[in-house]
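At this stage, I wrote out one protein, both as residues and as discrete backbone shape codes, and that material follows here.
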Amino acid sequence: MERLRVLTLNIWNKKGPWERRLELIREGIRRLSPDVIGLQEVIFYNDRTQADEIRDGLGYDAAFGMAHDLGDGMHFGNAVLSRFPIEKRIVHPLPTAGDEERRALLHAKIRTPAGTLPFFVTHLNWKFHDGVARESQVVSIAEYVMHETPIGADLPAVLVGDFNAVPNSAEMRFLLGLQSLGGKSVHFTDCFEHLGAPPGYTFDSEKNPYAALTHEFPRRIDYILVRGPELGTGRGKPLSAEVVMTENHDGVAASDHYGVFAEINVKELGQRLH
């Protein structure tokens, strides 16, 4: 195994024509053949999640992490699908904005042929004016990732999700090592920034019929980030990145968001530096 194929997609819970959208999501996964998938806005109900519906017959292991209890046995959260065994699942609650909106980080430890992959999925507060909440959330994520996955112990950590923040926002600049927050700093590499074709809108109100309902401007808010490349080895270096699942079939799209797909190097290319 030399490269890891990663997909992230906010599936828009069960809004719109879910059964038809489900078909399109599954078609996209078959076409892209990702090794690991991060899903946001996943609904759990009657002992089954939408991630289970998506993975039926596709050969993926699955893990779900609740972010918010909707009542009546229904939960809202994030999910991981993996071609490789998911050995451990941890849910890390994130700070809130003081309202009823709840967010979380799902941490999956995945056993791949190249080693253990620390894989993280999240979905941050959505309102435009919730920047302070998102800043608190990314600091919490960074602290958790750095504590749980020391550099060099496993494969470089991969963090994906719907961050509801554009690339030049404080929260994304923090994650990319371009500024500090609260006296703390971290560094992830944005796969699309280096290898994708701009503008890379993942919430496109001009072309996506469901995003158009918001009357918002198009923007890039979904990301695949990797804590690499690892010094001296090249592990964690992005190899390709693109916005995917953009098709519109007779007015039906897979979601109100587009997906992001990336390939990441997991093979040691050189001598480790110490």
